[in-house]
Amino acid sequence: MTRLTKASAAFLLLMLAAPAPTVRAAAPVGRYTASGGTVLDTKTKLVWQQPPAAAPMAWAAAKSYCAGLGATLGGSGWRLPTIKELQTLVDVSVATGPTIDPTYFPNTGMGGFWSSTPSTASTTAAWVLSFNPNAGEGQAGMSGNASVRCVR
């Protein structure tokens, strides 16, 4: 019985010392409003495409895709966001999963998303942002594929 008590006590101590499960933080109340497939960021005043494009694509195709988005989402001026605009969507409090508010931006993968910001190191690369907690920003060749979420 003493061994069982010591084992139970050790288990209890381990449970108490274990970190609490990570909880996804959502954006502050009122930060985003969603309507008709778009999300308004009330802080930056940018309007975002709510679901990302259905499939990854090359940079030039992503620019064309965004330019034509008004036919399905309405409005004009749809474009690829700059890297700084993409960074405004990152929720730094999220430790696992995509680092973006899942309520307003569902189905966001953790792979790279194109920005319109070209690389300063190469004329054939552009900046991408990953919503993976361990990745952040990087540069990718424009002929490769990345995810797309447009803005206006």
User: Beta-strand percentage?
Assistant: 15-25%
Total number of domains: 1
Structural class: alpha+beta
- Supply the CATH superfamily name: Mannose-Binding Protein A, subunit A
- Lateral arrangement of strands in the main beta sheet: 1-2-3
Radius of gyration: 20 Å
Name the CATH class.
Answer: Alpha Beta
Report the count of strand segments. Answer: 6
Query: Biggest β-sheet, characterized?
Result: 3 strands, antiparallel
Helical residue percent band: 10-25%
- The pLDDT mean sits at 83
Distance between the termini: 68 Å
- Sequence stretches where pLDDT stays below 50 over 5 or more residues: 1-25
How many distinct helices? Answer: 4
Give the overall shape, derived from the CA principal axes: globular
Order of helices and strands: HEEEHHHEEE
CATH arch. level architecture: Roll
CATH topology: Mannose-Binding Protein A, Chain A
What does this structure look like?
This protein is α+β, with helices and mostly antiparallel strands and 152 residues long. It has one domain: Roll (Mannose-Binding Protein A, Chain A), CATH 3.10.100. Helices cover 22% and strands 20% of the residues. The protein contains four helices and six strands; from the N terminus they run H-E-E-E-H-H-H-E-E-E. It has helices spanning 2-17, 59-67, 70-73, 83-87, and strands spanning 32-35, 38-41, 47-49, 112-118, 125-130, 136-141. A three-stranded antiparallel β-sheet has the order 1-2-3, with no helix packed on it. A three-stranded antiparallel β-sheet has the order 4-5-6. The longest helix is centred in the first third of the chain and has 16 residues, at 2-17. It starts with a helix and ends in an 11-residue tail after the last strand. Mean pLDDT is 83; it is low at 1-25.
